[in-house]
Specification:
3-stranded antiparallel beta sheet; about 150 residues; mainly beta; 2 helices; about 5% helix
């Protein structure tokens, strides 16, 4: 599912070569709608990784697919300022559970691009082809892959 409401874009259009060139894995990205500030779990599973900067979260599904949700570009530089985590490593989550909240005002003040990437870092060897067309509007109920 989409981890945030916004506009679905092709990963190759993300303004960061690490994501656009799929160096970390295939996936998709969402440009958040104005005023949207909460990231939810795109899959059910356990929290594998949550850095102290709270700008990203890694999940692993029961069948071993590893998913990274990376919130914004260069947000790691905030060292957690403007982010609140609702989970910790080892927690079990269901698809749609709250993971992270960010302060849109702080992000705007810092001039950060809040495009949020969903990357399949391990265990998913198919080409990622979302069920919806790129440039479609999505919400956190939108199922993007089956």
């Amino acid at each position: 599912m989409a981890p945030i409401a916004g506009t679905l874009i092709n990963l190759e259009k993300v303004n960061d070569p690490v994501f656009a060139q799929k160096m970390m894995g295939d996936g998709f990205a969402i440009i958040p709608d104005a005023g949207v500030d909460t990231i939810t779990a795109p899959v059910s599973g356990s929290i594998k990784m949550l850095p102290s900067s709270k700008h990203a979260v890694g999940l692993v599904t029961p069948n071993g697919i590893e998913v990274l949700v990376h919130v914004g570009l260069n947000t790691v530089e905030l060292n957690g300022n403007g982010f609140k985590a609702y989970v910790k490593e080892g927690d079990q989550v269901s698809r749609g559970d709250r993971l992270i909240k960010f302060d849109p005002e702080i992000m705007r003040e810092k001039g950060l691009d809040m495009t949020t990437m969903v990357i399949f870092t391990a265990g998913y060897d198919k080409t990622v082809v979302p069920l919806l067309d790129f440039d479609s509007k999505v919400d956190q109920e939108s199922v993007l892959l089956k």
